[in-house]
Specification:
302 residues, alpha/beta, 10 helices, Rossmann fold, globular, 7-stranded mixed sheet, 4-stranded antiparallel sheet
Length: 302
């Protein structure tokens, strides 16, 4: 399919090289029309990386993350974690427990820290810091954490080299236009033996392959789409020495079940636990680059 003509006020120029590996062998893959404005996804034939091309300008992207994004009043929206914090804490606490097996304490940076819920959980063992692009969410979390939360990006933060023991990017890397720059910056910010945690979709998973352009992960704020193979390759090239992949996440099923109760209106809603459990255990089916679902978490050690 040929690309449509684009409005220059919404999009940057088309990228001619793969942002992940630099190859010129890129091809148009999907035209996503379920959002307005619509957008296109290209795929690199060399490494399999998919990315929005042309991507929205910085002003358009910034406007995506206002109050409407969190309140559900925008077409592209997420949930306000402040409304579900008690339930989300089940997952956050368990994740911190697992992180501590690799790095027990120190300074922790959550990139994409939203309203600071995960930072509160981390504060039991770490000195919490955050980077949040959304002024609406970031300025709220500054009320708790002060200047340890930077309203901005990995490109303009004030933190020093080797300052962090742990950096988390939970459902964040897909929002960035230049993931290699972000991975290198995280490597610079980590101390030796520090941990980078990434949670994102694996586009080689059967779930993503079957759904194609209908896969819900293709949304306006997502600029980058990885596979387990190309993301671990990029991490290795950026200098991370130990890389481990978990499917679907690094912790067990029970915290996910407990978190899901925030949406329950009656005991009948517990039926959804069957679906959540099925997905969790199906995700355990993987071999080399094959994965039954598209959920993954990566731990990378500097």
């Amino acid at each position: 399919m040929s690309k449509r003509k684009t409005d220059a006020t919404l999009y940057y120029d088309t990228v001619g090289r793969c942002p992940l590996c630099g190859s010129r062998h890129i091809r148009h893959r999907y035209h996503i029309i379920r959002y307005a404005p619509s957008f296109d996804i290209d795929r690199c034939s060399a490494c399999g990386f998919m990315f929005m091309n042309p991507r929205f300008t910085g002003n358009v992207i910034k406007q995506l993350y206002g109050e409407g994004y969190y309140s559900g009043t925008s077409e592209y929206s997420y949930h306000d974690e402040r409304q579900t914090e008690t339930y989300s804490r089940q997952v956050w606490d368990r994740r911190i427990d697992v992180i501590r097996r690799s790095v027990a304490s120190g300074n922790l940076l959550d990139v994409g820290s939203s309203f600071g819920g995960f930072l509160k959980a981390a504060s039991r063992y770490y000195v919490p810091h955050g980077i949040e692009m959304s002024a609406y969410a970031g300025e709220y979390s500054q009320q708790t954490f002060g200047d340890r939360v930077h309203v901005g990006t990995l490109e303009d933060h004030p933190f020093g080299c080797g300052y962090f023991s742990v950096i988390t990017m939970i459902e964040l890397l897909e929002h960035l236009p230049d993931p290699v720059v972000a991975l290198k910056e995280c490597h610079r910010l980590l101390r030796d033996n520090g941990l980078l945690l990434i949670q994102t979709a694996n586009m080689d998973g059967i779930q993503a392959r079957i759904l194609g352009g209908s896969y819900a992960y293709f949304m306006p704020g997502h600029l980058s789409y990885f596979t387990k193979k190309n993301l671990t390759m990029a991490l290795a090239l950026c200098g991370y020495r130990t890389i481990k992949v978990f499917y679907p996440v690094e912790f067990g099923l029970l915290p996910k079940l407990k978190k899901s109760r925030y949406a329950f209106a009656s005991p009948w809603d517990y039926r959804t636990w069957l679906r959540i459990a099925a997905y969790h255990y199906i995700s355990k089916i993987h071999f080399l680059n094959f994965a039954a679902t598209s959920s993954m978490v990566i731990y990378a050690i500097k």
